[in-house]
Structures are given as structure tokens and as C-alpha cells.
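Workshop exercise sheet. Pairs work together: one partner reads the sequence aloud, the other fills in the structure field after running the prediction. Swap roles for the next sheet.
Pair: D.N. / O.F.
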Amino acid sequence: MVVQPREPLSETALRTAIRSKTGFWQRIGVVNVTNSTQDDLLREAASGAPAPRVLLTELQLAGRGRRGRTWTAPARSSLMMSLLVRPKAAPEHWSLLTPLTALALAETLEGVGLSPAVKWPNDVLLDGRKTAGILAAADGGAAVIGMGVNVSTTREELPLPEATSLAVAGADPLDRNALASEFLTRFASLYTAWESDPASVLGPVRQRSATLGREVRVELPGGEALVGTAVDLTGDGGLVVASEGERRTVTAAETVHLRPA
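Structure field:
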């Protein structure tokens, strides 16, 4: 696979493109390298920084995934960013921020001819393989959503065999500035609707779900595992699993798909 030239993100271009579409974002920043955009914005949130704001980076040295995993990618090969928001919605609805972000990304990728699916609780898949991960953290009245998307990453550069990238999935050479501006515009629209009606994201997420209708093994905190069929999402984004004649709702877990859809 030939590696296409990896052009830098442009803070100026991003601001111009995004602000021509939405006035949602108060601050749009790009840095060349950082340990973690999520940690950076959590510190800003703790100091009372206004929201909404977004921070993107070309290289992240200590990006985090679920269960303490790391997210690494060659410089300029991915979209790595975190979003700081101060939701007006009640805290019990904040768990929907992860599927909301996944939905905004899925809509963005559909716009460039790809067919993404959302895997519960926090991944976006292409051809059944993970191309993006999302991790949300709360700090008082703020939430910071971290996201990493493999864009031009080659097969050899991917960290795991079950991962993929937009390029590996067959996308034409993509402009990360255009992808980022489109994603942030879609996020702003979905977020605004969610603040007024938290359930507004559930229907579109269900439609794009790679998990509903599948046999799954849900690995719960503490080592317990639940095997059954994923049948629905609850109003706060929990996964309903039917197992041995009973239905059980899980809200924080790792999900493994056991059979093809």
C-alpha cells in the first residue's frame, strides 16, 4: 500500500471552514504534539475554561482507550482530537455523548462514500474492523470526549489485526482538514438537538448499530461475562442483552461480537 503524502492540519483552514457552517465552537486549536488532548482539555475544564472547544493534534504520545489501553498512530496519519462541552442536559443523559459522537463520525464517513457501523459502546467500524475509538470523561459540569480515527494508516502501521483505516477500507486520499470540519459541524448539530431532546440520537444510532441483533459476550467490570443477544439500547445508551430467557441492561462493559450479522 502506497502511503499518500500526509499534509498537516491547518488551524486557520479549520476555523474558516467550520465557522462558515456553524457558530457552535468557541475555540478551535491544533497542536503538533501532546501527551493526550483529553488530559489537556480536562485540565482546562478544571480551570473553568468556557465551552464548547476542540483540540486536535498531529501526534499523541499517551492517548487513552477503554480499560487503560493506549491509542497510538504515526504523526499526521489520523484525526486525534478531544471536545470540551458543558451540557445543559441532565447528568443521567451524559452517557449518550459517546454514541452521539460515534453517530457524528458515522455520518461524516457516509458522506465520503464509506459504510460505517457503530459498535457498542464506543467504536466505529468499517468492514467489521475498528477505525475509530471514543472515550468520554466528566469533570464537574464539563465533559471531555476524546476520539481517534485512523485515516491514512497503512496495514503495516495498524496496531492490531482487527483494526483498519479509511485508506485500508478503500477511501480515496482524504483531506483531514475537510473530514475534521465536517465531523465538527455534524457533532454541533447533533449535540444541539440532544440538549433539547436526549433521545434524539437513539434512533439513528440503532440504525447504524453493528451490535444490535448480534450474539455477544459482554465482559463486565470485575471479571463477569454475559453471553446473549444484543436486542436494544436504553434511553441512556445502555445495552439490553437477552440471555437465558431474561433481559439484562449493561452500561459499562467491553463487547465482543460472536457471530456475523
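Discussion prompt: The two ends are 29 Å apart (CA to CA). What would you look at next?
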